[in-house]
Amino acid sequence: MHKKMLLPFLMLLVIFTTACTAGTAGDEESKSSGGKSSKKNNVVIGIEADAATLLANTDVNYITDVQIRNIYDPLIKRNPETGGFEPALATEWKNIDEYTWEITLRKDVKFQNGDPFNAEAVKFNIDYILDKKNNSTYLSRWADIKEVKVIADDKVQIITSKPFPTMIARIADDLLIMDPGNVKKLGLEEAAKNPVGTGPYKVKEWVRDDHLTLIANDDYWKGKPSIKEATFRYIPEFSSRLSAFLSGEIDLFKNIPVDSLDNVKNNENSKVESIGSSRVNYLALNTLHKGPLQNQKVRQAINYAVDVDELLKTVLNGNGTKMTGPLSKINADYVETKDYGYNPDKAKELLKEAGYDPKDLKLTLDTPNGRYPMDSQVAQAIAAQLKRIGIDVKVQVNEWGNHLTKIQQRKAGDMFILGWGPTFDAQSTIQNLFMKDAPYSGFYDSEVEKAIQKAIPIFNQDKRKQAFGEIQQLLVDQAAWVPLWQQADLYAVNKNLDFKPKVDESMQVFDMGWK
Amino acid sequence: MVEFIIKRTIQMIVVIFLALTAVFFLLRLSGDPATLFLPPDAPKDQIAQYREMLGFDRPLYVQYGDFLLKAIQGDFGESLRSHEDALSVVLGRVPATFQLAFAALGLSILIAIPIGILSAYKRNTFYDRIGVGLTVLGQAIPSFWLGLLLIFFFAAVFHLLPSGGGGTIYHMILPTITLAAYSVARFARFTRSTMLDVLKKDYIRTAKASGVPMMRVLFKYALKNSLIPIITLVALDLGVLLGGAVITEVVFSWPGVGRLLMQSLLNRDFPIVLAGVFFIAVVYSIINFIADIAYAYVNPQIRVK
Asked: Which B residues 265-304 touch A at CB under 8 Å?
């Protein structure tokens, strides 16, 4: 009887032993792949999701862009620290008149398959965006282009139907050059998996929803890349990304949540790199539907009642740069505006003047969850701050897609949290946030609209800056929103990896190296 | 048998039709994909154009009719995000999901049934309490948490196993355990209770009394008669697992159907979601169908009826 009783137990034992043996086998594997040795010739970057496509100029999306910018080059690039313009495939650019831009190209560049890079290639890529058949989501930004003319092998003219003062910004932020020959030969569907650019890396392998492996292009026009192989590994869940990083499987990932920073800091093999992003976060005060927020004094009162410094210190642990107006300091057209500061008495007074007893004010606040650093926690904290002067705020936490749809359809609550960026010039923020068609600031005023309409076509840079400067003052005076902060981009980086974050949020493997 | 198959096939079509219809209308309630696919600075007319191109500007019943007509021909449209054929994208993720599903199911059966039998046979003893305790624990731990815990210890702390991704057998170990934990609990509890019922039966007592060895009583007489309800349960779980274990796949970055559906849902990539639901409904129906046939095999009485 005793023996028989043991038999089922033995079965269990066998199963568990098998499981354990499998575990130790994995041990050897992960050691041989090596997580900690310095001098490596590959780098693994953890990222939330797959690229939608490897074609350039097709999908306006950070996730796609950050990957393909290792395969393709832009004509003009952003300075990593200031956001200013620097030559890349283009050597010079100028406007001949308000409707014509002329760009001179490098002559010594070849695509990864040996095809020459030239003016025809530039024309092909702009025409690609403009061709509706290609479903490029960049189209609206480029819609005012009338024609692209090839002047010489290394010279191209872009002719616009309206004055287009922000052309260089469009070229720097959007346009990447893919090889026309490859796209024509393979067709869009195949070229989306087998892209050819002029960039420092070529595609070695792309496994959907798993990884993209790139291999160095030794003939790169700027020189041989020092890292031979780069992999983007797709890890949707943040905690898994963090674990993969702590175990040495990935060397780099962006957006460490503020509340997990210590995990990275305390790890002996890692470091945190951070930079003030051009992305701004704000509390929108919705004037698009009837309510107390249509009253300027109420909006000003809320500006006085929200203590941004306290939010930054307590909720974000200091990871962010306070803003006072519609633009961040990174912005080329930034002017200094009045800081409302924290003044609850003044807030109460203004509410009284507007005819409201704070205790009767009941407002709603929409927030996404996890889209921006600590967004829903920030919303809760703002609600608590407004409660101090008596305003009752109900926080509604939304899934991101829902949040965006609500704002687009103008069905968001009295206030909402949103971010905007990357943005380096005034127009791309102010035009897209404060005009009648734009729902993202929740604010509309016909005077402001008129001023924006007037500023957009101004070609002279000084006059332009002045016009946008006045608009910034106007918006602050109107208390169009509560400016919060520039996000801090926080990167978890392997201690031995030489990586410096950039304001445009790119991760260029070519600029990285191992110590 | 032929009549049985025809009847089940018709049932299957109805189930798939209802599932697709429900999901179609629920998706339309969830928001506008144009908002998510176009850059936020896209002007109104481009958003309108985009919606027109996708056909989202038409009345809902027209969209639905059009969708059904094409779906019958196996055409679920193109992914809004990558412009690839939706059904092919879903089918491309199937091998990874199946791999994980069968591994998890195999592991759970292997562990659960012996635990269930032992608990029933040694009812109210130390073994039983351990068995029941473990199963309750397995059922109570959310797979999300268990997955992260396993990753934390086995990958981040001890560097024994990879934290996620697909590829080798080592990548499979942690997600398989995570996925199996819940099924083990269910199977073991179920095996225990049906075994307890069967063990009380007269024929078992007779078998024991006439000196049939205990192992034979347990495995030949008792287990075989407890199998029918267990098969149902296994089939149901297999259906769920084959449809993609959403949470486990996301936590372990496993490139399967569940993760694809989750991401497509967040992106409002409607064609992919609908193709995915179609796939799950078909798999579910087929599994149930196979389970019915399996009953007949285990218990000839069902066939006669």
From this structure: 266-268
